[in-house]
Give the backbone structure.
Amino acid sequence: MLKTLFQKKNVLVLGGAGFIGSHLCDELVRSNKVICVDNFLTGSERNIDHLLQNPNFAFIRHDITLPLALNAEDIGLKKFKAAWQGVQEVYFLASPASRGDIERLPVETMMVNSVGLKNALDIAVENKAKFCYISSDAIYGYISSNKELIKENAEGIIKHIDDHEYYAISQRFGESLVENYRRHRNLEVRIARVFNTYGPRMKLDSTRVISEFTRKIILGKDVVVYGGSGVVGSFCHVYDTVKGLIRLMEAGNEQPVNIGSDQPVSMTELVKQISEIVGTGTEVIIRPDFPDGYKPQLVPNISRAKEELGWFPVTLLAEGLRSTIEDLKANQGLIELGFSDRVS
């Protein structure tokens, strides 16, 4: 019915200039009209520059912790007929997500996953739109071993007053708020628990694992692997993650769904592969424990995504690493020219 009446849906992407958000906009704009909202706290205009001239794309610079009226005259959405068509889908990716940004912006992280999320949910209720909250594996808390594939019913320990846990706490609150809007505001919701994601548009100076390892190898520094020689991680290419989010919006239900790679990757093997692509060797230092702020990476069980959504990642790690490292090297040039900004 919507396609017949409106031809294309209006889709609101909050945090659309961030790493995952900008790739999501790229995919959605192929068949929808996309309204991207970001305040560039951790996102970057460079991530969406190529979309600004697209007639099916509109950008609004706004902090979602403040109310947003899509039908306001100064918003500039007349071409999308937002005043009467509204929006049909809302994706929420407005929270800082990398460890470095979260530690730099603790209050902002908690506010966006509470006040900002409420404002976004209210927009969805007003428009009777489907809502997808992009949560993360952080909500599972501390689980002593990362050898088991984590199912959606797992629940580890989170200390509610801790310098390194406010992101996890805010995401648990966020999921609860979304669920309560479903129950008490009659809102159709989705919850995606996104695991470690990598790909083009990560920043070379980011604290994401692949960025950090690549940066150290390029600079000729030692790479430290925490958790012992047997520690593993999960790495899903951003193209696959985005496909999973869109598929969840289309075919999912209110149950949280893990979106990530279920193939464990040895951290020492990851260093080796990155070194081979960069073309520079490095010394790997193995530390048995994790320092403050670090946790074992979790590997998801994605049987729910496979069975209910028909989704699973298809990008091979070696293939994904090549395109990612090429992009990170280009990033290095921007940093050296003084154009670095912080992007999650």
